[in-house]
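Allow me, if you will, to draw on your knowledge of protein folds for a short while. A protein sequence and the structure tokens that stand for its backbone fold form the material at issue. I would ask you to consider whether the tokens describe a fold that such a sequence might reasonably adopt. Thank you for your consideration; the sequence and its tokens are set out here:
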Amino acid sequence: MAEHDAGEKTEAATPKRKQDARKKGQVVRSKEWVTATIMIGGALFMMLFGGHVGREMERITRDVIRSAGEGIDTPRLMLATLSEAGLDATLALLPFMLGLFAISLFAPIVVGGATFSTEAMMPKWSRLSPASGFKRMFGVQALVELLKAIGKFFIVAGVAALTLWTFFDEFLTLGRGDVHATISGGMFLLMQTFLLISISLLLIVAIDLPYQIWHYAKELRMSKQEVKDEYKEMEGKPEVKGRIRRLQRELAQRRMMEEIPKADVVITNPTHFAVALKYDAERPGAPRVVAKGADLIALQIRRVAEAHQVYVVEAPPLARALYHSTELDREIPEGLFLAVAQVLAYVYSIRKYGRAATKPLPTEFPIPDEMKF
């Protein structure tokens, strides 16, 4: 029973699993979303550039007909005319084509993000297997695609019928005007109908997109054993362990530096060690170590203390004893109570009376032999 539970894919995909899937080109994709956005964008571009394209095509047609009458016996002239007409037609359609290209490029990125995978372009021989082919044809995914196709048919047919019924009178009056009015009116009605049909596809997108997100998450699910194996693999890599330790050190050092401005005194070696102490008279307990370090960290502690006007006291034997016998964010040991009390009394006296009225700091401190370094 336990083995069955371990093999069942009940766990959400880990960040590494998602990253590996993205490297293989496996991201959330919705063909219905891409189709709908391209069709809606195409309809909008037709309404925006349709008039310009129509006028350009009319001009090009007239130029071709006029040139054909003048140079029908000259193949070279006819070829040049057709080439020029093709170039003009391409330039007229260029804004429309570029707009559709941009939509087709960025529409998938909106859903699944940008990704490029050479592995996804490699041929997969498993797709040539008849068994795999039948599984795809008669599987759940094929059923979903069939239902979407049927849904699209009924939605598009319904919207088209409703549009034709709504604009029925306008369609009937098209033949009563002149040629230009009939063409312009017919194109306008056609573009409106196409836009409404394209917008109706968003109903399919509203169903398909959540399903694709759910299906993608389901495909990437992991068993509990796979999660454990991945964790062990990640933890076993030396570079990962080193990075974790480095981040932990940086985080601890950052927090430590933030506590220095709250300290009462920093006791130094003066160059090799520095220990910052904080004493709260309103709370029971001994002074607490808020920061400590050696060499470069000691220098940084002194700089932060001086920048925030925290007293820095040079007491080499006491600094060495504090550094080697204390833990960060812990109270000092009992054997150093008297020595630290002398330093704090000296600091409090300076704060109250100034250095001129304060007795010099003792040169020797009562430090137990087992704490002397």
